């Protein structure tokens, strides 16, 4: 080995050692996660994964589901999925590499949907929150400046504490059915309400 090769070899070894230490500190296990490829998908592709996951899960528990027709003009899009007479938005987020939080972007309260299904993917777990639109704390979550869009961050500890981990289709079905019941109860109490 030449001196140049020795120098390069030593430097590369130190870089790899530093990367391994940083992975231990910051990675939270993404390098060995079965969900790791989700982190590298573009945002639109990631969103489509979330929507397709929800469609598949609802179909697997016996629901008839209509997925938004993407050939329509995007400006007209008001919801992602239609099921049981309700319009659903789907948001998917992966846990940050540094902090155990999930950031859900582009929530628009002006869209005509009834509930949101939030999918939060950690390296070794999946959390799903089923939230009727009327229960979203719009005044407390972050609104983007000069925009109608909001951002809602979820902390992993809160998801764990509130029992949002979903491991089976039965877990998913129970969460969905609870949201559906809340939305229907809210509609009965308020009567028919026009969107927008």
Q: Percentage of helical residues?
A: 25-40%
- Under the CATH scheme, the architecture is 3-Layer(aba) Sandwich
Strand count, sense and barrel status of the largest sheet are: 5 strands, mixed
Report the sheet-strand fraction: 15-25%
What is the fold named in CATH at topology level?
A: Trna Endonuclease, Chain: A, domain 1
Shape: elongated
Strand order of the largest sheet: 1-2-3-5-6
Uncertain regions spanning at least 5 consecutive residues:
none
Number of domains: 1
What is the CATH class name? Answer: Alpha Beta
Based on secondary structure, the structural category is alpha+beta
Care to describe what's here?
- With 196 residues, the chain is of the alpha+beta class.
- It has one domain: 3-Layer(aba) Sandwich (Trna Endonuclease, Chain: A, domain 1).
- The chain has helices at residues 3-26, 36-40, 43-60, 156-161, 169-190, and strands spanning 65-67, 81-83, 86-94, 101-108, 115-121, 126-132, 142-143, 149-155.
- It has a 5-stranded mixed β-sheet. The chain has a 3-stranded antiparallel β-sheet with strand order 4-8-7.
- A hairpin with a 5-residue loop joins strand 7 (142-143) and strand 8.
- The longest helix is centred in the first third of the chain and has 24 residues, at 3-26.
- The N and C termini lie far apart (72 Å).
């Amino acid at each position: 080995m030449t001196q140049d090769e020795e120098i390069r070899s030593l430097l590369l070894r130190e870089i790899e050692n530093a990367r391994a230490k940083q992975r231990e500190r910051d990675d939270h296990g993404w390098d060995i996660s079965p969900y790791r490829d989700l982190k590298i998908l573009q945002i639109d592709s990631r969103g489509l994964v979330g929507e397709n996951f929800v469609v598949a899960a609802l179909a697997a528990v016996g629901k008839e589901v209509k997925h938004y027709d993407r050939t329509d003009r995007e400006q007209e899009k008001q919801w992602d999925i239609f099921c049981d007479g309700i319009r659903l938005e789907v948001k998917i987020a992966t846990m940050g590499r540094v902090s155990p939080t999930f950031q859900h972007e582009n929530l628009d309260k002006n869209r005509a949907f009834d509930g949101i299904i939030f999918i939060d993917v950690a390296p070794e777990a999946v959390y799903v929150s089923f939230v009727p639109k009327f229960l979203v704390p719009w005044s407390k979550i972050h609104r983007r400046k000069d925009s109608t869009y909001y951002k809602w961050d979820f902390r992993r500890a809160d998801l764990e504490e509130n029992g949002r981990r979903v491991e089976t289709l039965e877990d998913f079905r129970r969460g969905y059915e609870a949201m559906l019941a809340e939305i229907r109860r809210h509609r009965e109490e308020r009567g028919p309400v026009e969107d927008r």
